[in-house]
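Batch manifest, entry 17 of 40.
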Amino acid sequence: MSFDMQQSQPDALLPQVIRLWCDPIPRTGYENMAADELLSRRPEAWLRIYGWAKPAVSFGYFDSTPVAASIFPGEGIEYIRRWTGGGIVDHRKGYTYTVTLPAIEGNIYPPADKLYKWIHGALAVALQASGVECELLIEDAPDGGRACWASPVASDIVDSAGNKLAGAGQRRYRGAVLHQGLIQECEPSDGWPQLLAAALAAQVVEVQGDEPWPGFADEVAELCRTKYCTEAWNDESHGRRKPTVS
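Output type: structure tokens
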């Protein structure tokens, strides 16, 4: 089934220009989280495609390492709390991407479900053009548990048998939008990032190199030091309260 991008376009506030950065450096889990957050602070829209330096499993903001490890156990896995929501995701296979929309004064983006459908509609177009037969799920599938791929939700991308091919989590912060997504169980042809970028915005600016701007690596390291690698971020109560000891 083809997807009509004109019908899916939720609002004129969406970007006309997007910067595409195929990050050439596989980064650790929290380096990837920091990189995505830094992009979300920028005044431009971004599409980042990236890999992982180590085997990784990520989980939504309010989930926990023990639960993630019970679902996806293994030696040497990094268990990573994301800033976004969503379920528990195994990153040992598939393709990871991030879309960020900048905070612009006076702009209020459409609701999360419409943004989710818009981004996944663009991704469906890119995947279809890359030889992947897929469609958007119309409504939530039966709850399969905490593992993200066991419980497809409305506007996730599925194959003809209903198997999930792409899902994501979102966060809004001070007017900006961070959308972290994953493609699994399919092999799109080379060039799918460019197709996705072109489906998201009328103009695509490709950014080359190890850093999207000078000093980026230092900013990533600092954000890891002050946020993502801190005890507070990795505390299983996540700062809401300290567990009581009887």
